[in-house]
Amino acid sequence: MTKEELLSKLKTIIEPYVQNEDGLANLSEETNFIEDLEINSANLVDVILDVEDEFNIEIDNDGMDKMLTVKASIEVIQDKLAAK
Amino acid sequence: MTSEQIIEKLPYQSPFLFVDELSKVHEDGIEGYYTLKKDEYFYKGHFKEHPVTPGVILTEIMAQIGVVCLGIYLFKETISEDAMGVAMSSNTIDFYKPVFPGEKVFVVSKKDYFRFNKLKCTVQMFNAERKLVAKGSISGMMKPVSL
């Protein structure tokens, strides 16, 4: 899976939980889920659970703690996919 | 962990403690009761001359028994000296029957998932005749906090 495909899938997953539409329109690797997209902590858990289902991977507590930005999330997902 | 130990860990007190007794608790669910007092503070205003338990209070009873008490049980290994920090994050509840002052309600909750401190449950409430009063989904974030 290319990084672009991964980013596109991630964007689809986070979209329903985003409260700041401008943040979504300007989505970049630096985008922070909580600060830029105003996703709350409960919905951040939903993002992680949806990521697990979409990519058929399991995210542990360390992974969850890292996944605060688009860039970090892609890295965690890529690591988990590589370890499969 | 006994019913009394769980209730003791609840972060609520009168007039906003809505758990009398837990009749069953395990890793996947919980059941418990609350009897609405005839003089609960909200009956004075809901409604004028016609007291009916507000939906938000029924939701709160379902959340306290179905989500917070279950969460305390699930955290039993780590909660020893700590208090439980809780925040309801979402709920979708449908209501079927009114609950009047003095009625006893029974709550049955099934865990959907408990991941990363988020507990999501499917919760039902029944009245003394075992008729469905309300049902739906409640989620909350839970974390033991040092006092």
From TrEMBL, chain A:
The modification O-(pantetheine 4'-phosphoryl)serine is found at S41. InterPro entries: ACP (IPR003231), ACP-like_sf (IPR036736), PP-bd_ACP (IPR009081). PROSITE patterns: CARRIER. The gene is acpP. Its main location: cytoplasm. This is Acyl carrier protein. 4'-phosphopantetheine is transferred from CoA to a specific serine of apo-ACP by AcpS. This modification is essential for activity because fatty acids are bound in thioester linkage to the sulfhydryl of the prosthetic group. Residues 4-81 form the Carrier domain. Coiled coil: none annotated. It comes from the Bacteria. Belongs to the acyl carrier protein (ACP) family. Carrier of the growing fatty acid chain in fatty acid biosynthesis. The keyword Cytoplasm applies. It is found in: Cytoplasm. The keyword Lipid metabolism applies. Keywords: Cytoplasm, Fatty acid biosynthesis, Fatty acid metabolism, Lipid biosynthesis, Lipid metabolism, Phosphopantetheine, Phosphoprotein. Pathway: Lipid metabolism; fatty acid biosynthesis.
